[in-house]
Amino acid sequence: MYIRSMARRRKPKQARSKATVDAIVEATGQMLAREGSRATATGVAERAGVSVGSLYQYFPNKKALIDAFLERRLDRMVAVGVALLRAHPEWLGDRDPELVVMVAFHALRGALFRIVATAPEKLDDPNLVALLTDGVRGFVRPPLS
Questions:
Q1: How far apart are CA 107 and CA 84, in angstroms?
Q2: What is the pLDDT of residue 95?
Q3: How far separated are the first and last CA of the chain, in Å rounded?
Q4: How many CA atoms lie within 13 Å of 122's alpha carbon, on the beta-carbon side?
Q5: Can you tell me the mean pLDDT for 7-20?
Q6: Apex 81 CA angle, 142 and 127, nearest 5
Q7: 81 and 136 in contact (C-beta within 8 Å)?
Q8: Does 3 score more than 70 pLDDT?
Q9: For the chain, what percent of residues have pLDDT higher than 70?
Q10: How far is CA 33 from the centre of its chain?
Q11: pLDDT at 18 (0 to 100)
Q12: What's the rounded Cα separation, in Å, for the pair 105 and 119?
């Protein structure tokens, strides 16, 4: 988890509660994609099929919803980046894949956050994945001797 937020009021313990939180986070992404910053907690709850009260049991405000969504997306992207680097050890030399991915994402963070905030559906776009792959490959390429 790369975004540390004070996001949750309550941590889900039961499978049903975890499914509710998952539905809320997924609905947050869908509402952000559809309405951008105009997305509301009420709209997210409606989209997730839960009451607003249930949403507020886990997320105290809109920022907490967005943080949870970003955290989930970025965790997935970091996992993909690490897997990519492990599949291509020649790109790494003696560097640690987790560290390289974190540094690469730090370097690209402005663009990534704009994409996540304005068009989260683009994170699943194969063209963006290819572009990020090329960016990471270029970032970790050993210097010319």
A1: 17
A2: 76
A3: 37
A4: 15
A5: 81
A6: 100
A7: yes
A8: no
A9: 67
A10: 13
A11: 93
A12: 18
Give the residue with greater pLDDT, 4 vs 34: 34
- Structure token digits, residue 101: 């991915």
- Residues 57-115 pLDDT 10s: 999 998 899 888 888 877 777 777 777 777 777 777 777 777 777 777 666 666 666 66
Q: Are 95 and 45 in contact (CB under 8 A)?
A: no
**CA-CA distance, 82 to 29, in Å (whole number)?**
23
Rounded to the nearest angstrom, the gap between the alpha carbon of residue 99 and the centroid of all alpha carbons in its chain is 18
Q: SS3 string of the chain?
A: CCCCCCCCCCCCCCHHHHHHHHHHHHHHHHHHHHHHHHCCHHHHHHHHCCCHHHHHHHCCCHHHHHHHHHHHHHHHHHHHHHHHHHHCHHHCCCCCHHHHHHHHHHHHHHHHHHHHHHCHHHHHCHHHHHHHHHHHHHHHCCCCC
Return the amino acid letter for 3: I
- Predicted TM-score (pTM) of the model is 0.59
Query: What is the token pair recorded at 119?
Result: 């068009």
**Domain 15-140, classified CATH 1.10.357.10, yes or no:** yes
According to the model, what pLDDT value does residue 145 have? 44
